[in-house]
Amino acid sequence: MSFFVPGIVLEQRKEPMLSRDMVMMKPDSLRTFQNPFEEILPQELRPEEITEVARLADIIDESDGRSLYEELIEADKRGVDAVIADAIDDEPFISSQLNIALHEPEKIALALELCAKAVHADLSKIYVAVYRHVFDITIRIPKKLAGVEVMRFGGRYPAETRAYNKFRKEKNTLTVGTGALLHLVRAAERGISQTSCFVTVAGDAIANPRNVEVPVGTPVSEMLRFCGLAADPETVIVGGSMTGRSISDPEEEKVGVMTRGVLAFRESYKSLGYICIGCGRCDHACPEGLSASQLRRFAEFGRRDLLELYDVDRCIGCGSCSYVCPSRLDIGTTIFAAKRSLAAEKALAEKGGAAE
Amino acid sequence: MKKMNAATVSLMNDSFRKILFSNPVLVGGMVVGEIIIGATSLQNAIALSITFAIVTIPVLLLAPLIAYFVPKTWRILCYALVSMSMLFTAQAAVAPISPTIFDSLGIYLPLLALNTVVVAYSRLISEEKGVVFNLLDGICFSLGFLIVAVLIGGIRELFGSGTLWGYEILQRKASALKLPFSGFLIAGFLAAAVEGLRIVFHAKPYEHFSGGKEDQK
Amino acid sequence: MNEHGLILQNAPHVRTSESLFTVMGDMIVAMAPLYVIAWFYYGPRALLLGLTGAATAWVLDMLSVLACGRRPDLRDLSAVVTGLLIPLLMPASIPYYVVVTACIVAILAVKFPFGGTGNNLFNPAAVGFAFTAICWPELVFSYPAPMQELAVAGEVAAKTAVSPAHNLMLGAIPSLDLFDMILGNAAGPMGATNILVILACGLYLLVRRTIGWRAPLSFLLVSGLMAMMWPRSPFGTFSSVGWELCSGMLLFGVVFMITEPVTSPKRGFAKVLYGATSGAVVMLFRYFGGFEDGFVFALILMNVFAPLFDRVCENVLHKIRHGTLLPKNFAPGAENPPKEKKKLPKPSLKKKTETEVGA
Amino acid sequence: MTILLSFFGAALTALFLENIVFARALGTSWLLYMLKHPKELVRYSVLLTIITVVASLIVYPLRDFITGTGYAYVLMPILFIVCMSAMYALIYFVTKRFWPEVFENIRKRLASATFNCAILGSLLIPYNEGMDLARTLGYSLGMSVGFVFAVVLIGAGMERIALCRVPKAFRGLPVLLIYLGLLSLAFYGLIGHQLPT
After folding, report:
1. Is C262 on the interface with D (CB under 8 A)?
2. Is ipTM > 0.90 here?
3. Please, where are the H alpha helices in B161-213?
């Protein structure tokens, strides 16, 4: 990014998915649940009623996979004074959370108020967290989203990890994904339980890429057919473009609550076993300030002593080094695998030590 | 020729390998210094290999004899004295090659008297071997040394000063080849070539003789 | 859509658009104006020299990769970059065989034995030029006067001129003032005299992030400081700093050779150390060295210490982060597996849970 | 004052300009041993330093006596061998009598430490160049310290080479020789002229 701070800013390529509206794939699959507080307006719901609705609709927060009910109870016990909607999409192509925040700001604002009331937080301290370094988008991210102030997170990838570390350090904030907030509003207003999740279908092999609301568990091939395929994809990816995994058979692959996106690319990047030319770009790209080229070399030669000296356990597996490598080496994967094997061996050694 | 049993065959193979595939200089890394600095011309190379032969072979031959009389600690003295006394005959043998041979070799001629073969190999290996095999060892060592010296000396003289044994051959000459650093480079490339040949012919890899048995005091 | 025709690939599925070709292409693009200027001053002979250098280096590199038993990768132009770099350090009236020997030494003696493109420990162009400078000092350090058409082949009858570096070495007053040297119509190595063009190429490489800013800046600071403290030219300190920096191959080396990513240290601060010490050593070579411009020898000497700087910085960082210079039971090379490469677990494509990155 | 100056001048030239390993390539087998057993470097470098300095002290007065007679080139090696064996015997008995534990751990390599090319070289060179006492002492001290300096430098380099994809034929000694060549080219830049052999 800049000359002095290590790390890179990724080219987001979020158009045209961001500016298009969310589309519901199978409208008839919505299930309702018996809402005891049917007639009360959502604004007047009491805190325990809100958590009761969340439990009945069994809403799951897609940013960290925990159920919203537990999060609210735990945050209430901890005493929280600010509620933040997580709409940070720092991975290229992915815009499922940001799309909801931009296209239904009123619902998100209402949901934030409900959550703030549920955890007895200060009603004025509700924010929507957004990733600032998104340049090539047609609609502008406003300062205020339907009255709710927008908190901007910028800087180098991975912005989401840094944001979460900041929130955890502050200890008095509750972060909820925008998808879960939307489900909370629907459950409170019309008693619809959570059966669907929000996924970005994109990639250069997709005819019209857009954000899709999909019932949980639909196979990936069906979604690809729904958005139409412009060409025969060489790789299909489930999850984020930087952290997802490529799949071999779209028929069985199911979409989960935490799946942010489904991407299909015309040709996979050609990693034909190039050699490291020692250009040093990955050293500058690592946000944690590790020297990635040396770590990859130690991992390749199995030098565990130098891996330890060069602090391989600080690697967060973000993949920025693999992103910038001009000869397409999988530096991030190698280093993260080496970190895991080193940690496993150390645990084994301790257990062995303890066993004697 | 009486039928050679397996032991003698392996011993003979052991010595013959010393000529190329486990060459004392390029693979064993023993008498490297004198070759790299000393052998800057063919005459020097020949002089060095003659001295090496004259100095080491007697030591190897006398090793079992000396081992019989002298206790372990003082054998090194006898070997050094023997090789140094042989140095005179070597200097006499080398003198007719060319009048300026001694100043172009300088200190590297007397240095050959204390090379690693004389100091370490004799005390470790050749004391147990019979006299005939020691002679064979000495000859293979000298042949190996000769090949390397002639190769390095020839290349450096031909390309370095454009002459071969003093006769003008090339006009353009890269005088940097006569310096020690190009000696190292050429020796490195020759060692790689020998190693490459050894891999191609699947010959037995070289195990350093002082690796296993730590030599005595 | 054939279900099973899909390719499995590892974690980041979007990659930068740069490839081997563009990285090395940047260097070649940065050297192109220098060749145009050299062609403008010395005629087409400059281009032919560059061509022979690049061709020999490339062919030798391909042969050495084949000799290693690996598949030669045609997109890897690092040998061409070395081949183009060497003629720029030499005068335009240099015979062709000198450039060819320099390339042979550069590729075969420095890149090939240590394992090809990313593994060389020394700067190949520096070693190649150093070898030829020792072999034929009279050819390599006699510079033709600029603005004269040199014969393309055969005997080159060129009016020679004394380069500013030579004057400085003898302590004489350089005949040109600073402005002429910056514009480059001074006698000197083919690509190293035009200061403006070199700085422009350096800026281009800096912006393209092919070179770092740390090593050149610290190099110039230290060499400028030393030039100021012990001026060699009789005039004031400012002109002496200008003459020292603009003469010889110093600025060219700073932009193209000090910043070579393979042989320079990897850590940011280690680069600063590397640049500072090589600046000091270059000036020492100029004061006491045997050759007119000891930049190349100083660079080779500093390449020896580059891994040392890296290791020192790493230990200091380890001390800052963990309080101890080395990890607890740090056995160098001892306890890791034996020589043959440990089979690392194949990068597992198991579901990388969001929490692993998210939390 | 000039004695000190020439002492340190000779020590520095022997350390950097005419390094025993880079410029004169002596003691390479001893270098290989040190690279394989880095832990014993301190012990044997102290031993080498003591032997070189004391031996050149013993040799110096006898040298004029030898050059008096005509056959200097012949008698000189004999004198050196006698001095080295005297050194060997001296160290052998002194350490055995006064410091048994020191004797115990240098016992194994004492013989090849006293009788190797590095020691004979560091005695012959001052003799060839006809140095006076201060320069001889400085030179032999610089040589042994230069040897340690070279071993440390090459050790660091070999560790870096262990991480390179060296081709199969070059692994081991060949790449060490080539690295030594490039190192001696680097140090050759300091001198810039031909070395007297």
Report:
1. no
2. no
3. 180-200, 209-212
